[in-house]
Amino acid sequence: MTKLNKVVLVGAIGLIVLNFVSLARDMALPYQQGKKRPEAFYGNAFVPWRQQLKNVEYVGYYTDQSLTDTTARMKYTQTQYILAPTLLDYEQWEKHRLFILDGSSPKANQLQVEKLGLRVLRRTEQGAILAEKPMS
Description:
Blueprint: H1 3-32, H2 50-53, E1 58-62, H3 70-83, E2 87-89, E3 98-101, H4 106-116, E4 119-123, E5 129-132
Parallel strand pairs: 1-2, 1-3
Antiparallel strand pairs: 3-5, 4-5
């Protein structure tokens, strides 16, 4: 083995060791900062609604928050995941017979129910509402 090969080999081993030490330090960082509780899966609140919505193709989805907001988008996508294959229609939510009202607060949801004259079918502990348009 030539002297150049030995230098390259020692350098490569040195880089591997440095990367390994850095990786170990990065992996330990969350534990040094204190363990954070895992976030609850918001969509689980809608599991009891699956049976009621199993034959429903579309449900209107109302929120008074922009889906560009991370929390609002998380709530929407987790709800969609749990209720699939039922599709949540955010864009044209008012055209459907059934609605999920999942706004910024339980009060905001209730105000929307009253404004539209909807009949409440179910509620989650977080304040989301499954409602329907009254029969005309």
